[in-house]
Specification:
heterodimer, A: about 350 residues, Rossmann fold, 4-stranded antiparallel beta sheet, 11 strands, B: about 325 residues, globular, transport (chain B), membrane (chain B), BPD_transp_1_N (chain B)
Chain lengths: ~350, ~325
């Protein structure tokens, strides 16, 4: 198998190591394997981009890490180790979702930023109320002190006049400001890791750029390990250090961002990159798309799950066997083309 | 916010005027008037009055004038607090109704609070533990409560209360307090008699409110802000009670508006069965006897109480939902 080390210089410590994570949704219609052996490393202070089409398991991955998957989803296997090989090491998969330890992780060690700034905040409470609650959940401070911190957080995320905005209701703010509040909320417990689940999808392009640069600035200032979930290759190119490409609940390619764009190994990655609109394209040139749709995870194709849509099938083997997963901690692709020496 | 309240008050006032017109019209709908009914009554008991006497009675009660004049003179006196003289009781209407209005409100409010106290936790439980055994049990009990007529429930509860618990059932007061003036003892006696009628009246409304609360909360529980609350590290209990439950409370506020008139009107038969001195049975008697001033006063009061209930529910909604409170800010 073709492999290259993840980075040339000394790799930073791993903040979160996910190994063979498997999540199933069991219903009367049958068992859906939403995640089927997902592994990746999130390095301290770096940005890991997780990319894939809708329904590939990106959001389930984020929810699973925080142990917040909705009923009837259950984690059926794998480990999610925070700060491996340190005294703070803890396997999130082994915790009770309702336990005190898990609640301390939520918001305290891992913050979550949501896709929909409109619905991710409650309209029934002021921004300050919701933010102060998050501060006090993880710091034992007085209400007044928590309010000061909340104001500072709002200032940190670039909200003008935070002293007055703190008493505003979410529906009185624009979408961009709401998403900034969402980011402030994720940072309220001073987490080392932030998971951003499609943080810019619901925003217009200008606001997107502002939010992304805000995230990058905060990451540098607070040395945050950022897990950025998106379907947008442009966001990946701008933000990520390393990239994990997911398809139908599996990791199909892992690569440093430059390598991913320069020499994508997996046919799915190549197809995704071809589907990015380019300003250099000739007028009226048709945008390349990936044929077909993502199959429902309940009716996963036999063999390599991408083979029905793959333009570069090697042969019968693609339909008969599942290619080996990408070894953890390394770059590579889960594809027979890379397994078979050319 | 002030504009919102003023607008509500304005609507309430207009509604009250329509209620008074409708009330008057409905009372005049049945053929004949009080004197006809009175004559029929006398005829049934074997005596009669002359046509002159009947005409004199009509003149005395103003029944010979046009409908508009009758309405106007009725309204003018109503606004002065004079609801006229009950023809059946031959006493001022206000005197006839007397305590009954307040007792009706006490019973209705007790039933309403009981409805809330029972429906809120069960509704939350049923939604959070959807399809659990407890959910199914409460659902079943709720439907049974909806299906059983109130008066039947009243009879059953009276029987069991009397037979096995030795409660003195029926009425709102013990014999020694029925005619007594208000005192601490009388109030305490009322409090002791209140649970049974309140429970009977509350059951059906409770079942309904549980279903509404459950459905609403199920919707809210799926919203992203609940995940936000959990992702902050809040306990499940706190995350649910603070956020989705608050959002699902709107129907509780609305319930004031629609449960209140239901409790008052629905209580007529129950009041008869339980022997409660509320306005329900009085209204029934007044309608049967075509005692229009008494019936009119009661229907009017019930209508106004409903409007007030709606107003209270609007204000509650405003308190619950900041989007309404900040309308136009």
């Amino acid at each position: 198998m073709l492999q290259t080390p993840m980075a040339d210089h000394a790799a930073p410590a791993v903040a979160l190591a996910v190994r063979d994570l498997a999540v199933q949704f069991r219903s009367e219609q049958g068992v859906v394997r939403a995640l089927d052996g997902v592994s990746f490393d999130l390095h301290a202070g770096r940005t890991l981009g997780i990319v894939g089409e809708s329904g590939c398991g990106k959001s389930v991955t984020a929810r699973s890490i925080l142990r917040l998957i909705d009923h009837p989803g259950i984690i059926t296997g794998g480990r999610m180790v925070l700060d491996p090989s340190t005294p703070r090491e803890i396997d999130l998969a082994s915790l009770d979702p309702e336990s005190r330890q898990m609640r301390e992780v939520r918001g305290g060690r891992i913050g979550l930023i949501f896709q929909e700034p409109m619905t991710a905040l409650s309209v029934h409470y002021t921004v300050g109320n919701q933010l102060i609650e998050a501060v006090r959940q993880h710091h034992s401070v007085s209400v007044a002190e928590a309010r000061n911190r909340a104001t500072e957080l709002l200032r940190d995320v670039g909200i003008p006049r935070p002293e007055t905005r703190i008493d505003a209701y979410p529906f009185e703010l624009s979408g961009g400001l709401r998403q900034r509040v969402g980011i402030a909320m994720a940072l309220a417990g001073d987490p080392d890791i932030v998971i951003a689940d499609e943080p810019t999808t619901a925003l217009d392009v200008t606001t997107q750029a502002q939010i992304l640069s805000l995230l990058r600035g905060l990451q540098e200032a607070k040395n945050i390990s950022l897990m950025l979930i998106t379907h947008d290759m442009g966001v990946i190119a701008e933000m990520a250090d390393e990239v994990t490409v997911m398809y139908l609940g599996r990791v199909v390619e892992v690569a440093p961002v430059r390598q991913l764009f320069a020499a994508p190994r997996h046919p799915y990655t190549r197809a995704l990159l071809r589907a990015v609109p380019s300003i250099l394209a000739r007028p009226r040139q048709r945008l390349s798309t990936i044929g077909g749709a993502v199959p429902h995870p309940g009716s996963r194709p036999f063999g390599c799950s991408f083979h029905p849509r793959c333009a570069e099938r090697v042969g019968a083997v693609c339909m008969e066997r599942i290619p080996d997963p990408v070894p953890p901690g390394q770059a590579g692709a889960s594809c027979f083309r890379t397994e078979v020496p050319a | 916010m002030l504009i919102y309240i003023l607008r509500r008050l304005g609507f309430a006032f207009i509604t009250c005027i329509f209620i008074s017109v409708l009330t008057f019209a409905i009372i005049r709908l049945p053929p004949g008037d009080f004197v006809d009914a009175y004559i029929a009554n006398l005829a049934a008991s074997g005596s009669s009055i002359s046509i002159d006497q009947a005409e004199a009675m009509r003149r005395a009660y103003g029944l010979d004038q046009s409908i508009f004049v009758q309405y106007w003179s009725w309204m003018v006196r109503v606004l002065q607090g004079d609801f006229g003289v009950s023809m059946m009781w031959r006493r001022p209407v206000t005197e006839v109704i007397g305590d009954r209005l307040w007792l009706t409100m006490v019973v209705s409010l007790a039933a309403l609070f009981l409805t809330w106290i029972i429906a809120l936790p069960i509704g939350i439980y049923s939604a959070v533990r959807q399809y659990s055994i407890g959910d199914y049990i409460f659902t079943m009990l709720g439907f049974i409560g909806l299906a059983i007529p109130n008066f039947l429930l009243a009879l059953i509860l009276m029987y069991f209360g009397f037979r096995y618990l030795g409660l003195n059932v029926g009425g709102l007061f013990s014999a020694e307090y029925v005619q007594a003036p208000w005192s601490l003892g009388r109030a305490w006696d009322l409090a002791k008699h209140l649970p049974l009628p309140a429970a009977v009246l509350a059951i059906a409304g409770t079942a309904q409110l549980i279903r509404i609360m459950r459905a609403n909360l199920l919707d809210e529980l799926r919203k992203p802000y609940v995940v936000t609350a959990r992702a902050k590290g809040l306990t499940e209990r706190r995350a649910i009670l603070k956020y989705p439950v608050r959002a699902a409370l709107n129907p509780f506020a609305s319930s004031v508006a629609y449960l209140f008139p239901y409790l008052v009107s629905g209580s007529i038969i129950v009041s008869l069965v339980l022997g409660l001195p509320t306005v329900g049975p009085l209204l029934l008697q007044a309608l049967v006897a075509q005692d229009m001033f008494l019936a009119g006063a009661i229907v009017m009061m019930l209508g106004v109480m409903t409007v007030v209930g709606t107003l209270i529910s609007d204000l509650l909604l405003m308190w619950i939902d900041p989007r309404i409170r900040l309308e136009g800010r």
